[in-house]
């Protein structure tokens, strides 16, 4: 890694640490944190997912706001490709944090998979009466 990359990473980390979550909540309402691992990990189907927040904290952090109904509708139009729906949410609702979550394809995909959870899909039923 060259010096320029190290400086950029330090600047980004400082910026993320300096984010005022209370100000974001006042401006945008509900805020969610998306954390993406900074390094690529080979998929292991037998690995138990971590629930330890300290390990997750070492990743790249982005903050997103709750999507509007228009953004949800647009994302839902992409639902046959679930990841595309998550990308819509991540990109349109990003409010602060490390832009690598959007700019780097691998991080964008991982973050988008997490953002799918914001699409609250409820089960419904229609019956003729």
Automatic annotation (TrEMBL):
<protein>
    <submittedName>
        <fullName>Uncharacterized protein</fullName>
    </submittedName>
</protein>
């Amino acid at each position: 890694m060259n010096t320029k990359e190290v400086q950029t990473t330090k600047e980004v980390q400082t910026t993320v640490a300096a984010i005022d979550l209370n100000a974001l909540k006042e401006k945008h309402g509900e805020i969610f944190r998306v954390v993406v691992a900074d390094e690529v990990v080979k998929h292991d189907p037998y690995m138990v997912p971590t629930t330890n927040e300290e390990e997750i904290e070492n990743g790249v952090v982005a903050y997103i706001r709750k999507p509007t109904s228009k953004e949800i509708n647009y994302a839902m139009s992409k639902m046959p490709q679930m990841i595309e729906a998550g990308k819509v949410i991540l990109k349109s609702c990003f409010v602060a944090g490390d832009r690598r979550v959007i700019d780097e394809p691998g991080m964008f995909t991982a973050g988008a998979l997490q953002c799918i959870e914001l699409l609250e899909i409820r089960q419904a039923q229609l019956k003729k009466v």
